[in-house]
Amino acid sequence: MSIDSIIAQAVARAVKELYGVETDPASIVPQTTKKEFEGNLTVVVFPWVKAARKSPEAVGTEIGDWLVDNEPAVDRFNVIKGFLNIVIEPGYFTSMLRHIADTPDYGFVKATDDSPLVMVEYSSPNTNKPLHLGHVRNNLLGYSLSRILAACGNRVVKTNIVNDRGIHICKSMLAWKKWGEGATPESTGKKGDHLIGDFYVLFDKHYKAELKELVAKGLSEEEAEKQSPLMLEAREMLRRWEQKDPEVRALWEMMNDWVYAGFDETYKRLGVDFDKIYYESNTYLEGKDKVLEGIEKGIMYRKEDGSVWADLTDAGLDHKLLLRSDGTSVYMTQDIGTAKLRYQDFPIDKMIYVVGNEQNYHFQVLSLLLDRLGFKWGKDLVHFSYGMVELPEGKMKSREGTVVDADDLMDEMIQGAREVSAERGKGDFTPEESEEIARIVGMGALKYFLLKVDPRKNMTFNPKESIDFNGNTGPFIQYTYARIRSVLRKAADAGYKAEGYETVKPNEKEISLIQHLADYPAVVAEAGRSYSPALIANYVYDLVKEYNQFYHDYSILNEEDAAVRSLRLALSTEVAAVVKSGMSLLGIEVPERM
User: Which among 61, 72, 404, 551 would be 20 to 30 A from 82, CA to CA?
Assistant: First the structure.
């Protein structure tokens, strides 16, 4: 049991005995005492002042006296207004460290067959372009969230929905057909997703030139867009695709296969994966069926032009289009179809969509529609809404080819790690080892920088800042981990073991570190509750910062008292284990040597 739980239960007993008030220990949440006051944990006593009919200071003093007399973990206390600051018996922290060391998968809750089944959707790429920086943040958030939810005792299914149909796909196909000259990934030496992305940009270039010409002939911009031969051809190709034209479908399948091979490479480098992938080309018809079923049930209605709508005004929203007058589906219809297939495949208890905050309204509507269509998790679906990521230079645009490509970004990060490593000039590594360390550090820098920020906020990604070995960065944490592992290897070579320290009373800095370690399970649980990998990232950074201060102030291997040395080795071992565990929840590797 954690020290927080022990104190909460003891305070509940004290309040019952002193004032006759029944209090749920779960409602008592001890906080870490502020640095300017003496104490390890602080309890707010205001909730019992009325029942006690005494001042907050008097209530705090009475509860404090009771704890000193009745709870062995409490050494002494002080009261500041209505805040009871509790000093924990130093020896208790030693047993807490032993408990942490003896707990497999410390901080995690093991899932059972009865645990909630949570599905997390992330990535959602289009097959007309490669993954870019925005996708990188999405993938890292989704994958990390999946790991955190699993660590909180949920059964988790990681899923992806691929946008493999629509006018944007036809634009790339048409451009390849017109100007591709039979280009393939093999003939060009390009990854398939990059090759197709080039044709998407090429279509837009020709389309804009065409519009300019039409406007110069006296057409308005609106008329030019309607009469553009290129766009009319693309729409015709989409119509033929919908009618399953063999030629169009064969081209579509060939180009999509190139893209999927490229995506797979990128996902592998990013270190993310999926348990199940769905494709919009399979789900949009399922969505149509569900919408038609909604008409029969009176949930949706058909207008005179044949289009189908849902009236959501009773929920404070508007009327939502679900099928166009020509019978084609919209994104909402596709999401309904995907939901139907997922629910057939898995008995989902909760569905989490990792999608940017520009889609907030979409998911409000989707939640309502799924609930009305009978999906039990519809009402409670979670839109994990995250902010946009930009570069110091500003926003990115796919059509103009100004996006930051995910593969290029990863190359740049790894190259940055190589350069920093060369400047530091440390380590006697083989070229293969140096390259592997550069990969781990470069990817760690990228992932940590994107995950340490509150996901709800927009952010600016600065590659140079992220690779710094000082401050709140991935490399700083990785370097500290490697340093600890080096100390532990030297200890093992010297025959020192982390045992026999149970009688040692730790000093203030050691107590602070043990307290940090003791907070880990609560941080993991809160990260799962609030869907925030940033809580894990910043917890690990604080732990590492605290350890570095300890490492600077106290000797470990040169400590003459064997029991104290053992305590410090045990402490170092557990800090390294929790750092590795926390970073793994972010999908970040830590090197044994640097």
Answer: 72
Structure token digits, residue 302: 């058909």
Q: Where are the alpha helices (DSSP H) in 244-359?
A: 246-270, 280-296, 331-345
Nearest 5 degrees, angle CA 291-CA 292-CA 297?
A: 90
* Residue-wise pLDDT tens digits, 28-87: 999 989 989 999 999 999 999 999 999 999 999 999 999 999 999 999 999 999 999 999
- Two tokens, residue 270: 């990013």
How would you classify the pairing of strands 308-311 and 41-44? unpaired
Q: Please, which residues bridge with residue 86 across strands?
A: 41, 77
> How far lies 481's CA from each of 175, 270, 426, 487, 540, in Å?
50, 21, 16, 10, 11
- Per-residue model confidence as pLDDT tens digits over 419-460: 888 887 666 889 999 999 999 999 999 999 999 999 999 998
Q: Residue 452 CA to chain centroid, in angstroms? A: 10
3 state SS of 229: helix
CA distances for 322 relative to 256, 292, 308, 328, 361, angstroms: 26, 10, 5, 9, 15
pLDDT tens for 170-208 read: 999 999 999 999 999 999 999 999 999 999 999 999 999
Q: Which amino acid is at 88?
A: I
The contacts of residue 565 (CB under 8 Å, 6+ apart) are 496, 556, 557, 559
Question: The whole model's pTM is what?
Answer: 0.90
